[in-house]
Design brief:
This protein has helices at residues 37-40, 49-58, and strands at residues 13-16, 31-32, 35-36, 42-45. By secondary structure, the protein is α+β, with helices and mostly antiparallel strands. A two-stranded parallel ribbon has the order 1-4. Strands 2-3 form a two-stranded antiparallel ribbon. A hairpin with a 2-residue loop joins strand 2 (31-32) and strand 3. The longest helix has 10 residues, at 49-58. The protein is globular. The termini are close together.
Length: 71
């Protein structure tokens, strides 16, 4: 996560869309500067980015710059 650490600045919620065997990775236990992600962020999981996009479209619009997507 270190290469993307600057992108996480100011974010409070992470949406994780693992694929295949990545569902086995305990993302909540991964750490940034020694602090587990679950202690720094609200975490949500989605089966696909397409499914997450559908959910975002059904909710009221969010201000620009509030979504961070990593692949």
């Amino acid at each position: 996560l270190k290469p993307a650490e600057k992108l996480f600045a100011g974010k409070r919620h992470l949406l994780i869309c693992p694929d295949d065997v990545l569902w086995e990775v305990p993302f909540q236990a991964l750490s940034m500067r020694g602090t587990p992600l679950v202690a720094r962020f609200n975490l949500s999981y989605a089966y696909s980015a397409t499914g997450a996009q559908t959910i975002f479209r059904s909710r009221p619009a969010r201000p620009a710059g509030t979504v961070l997507a990593l692949a």
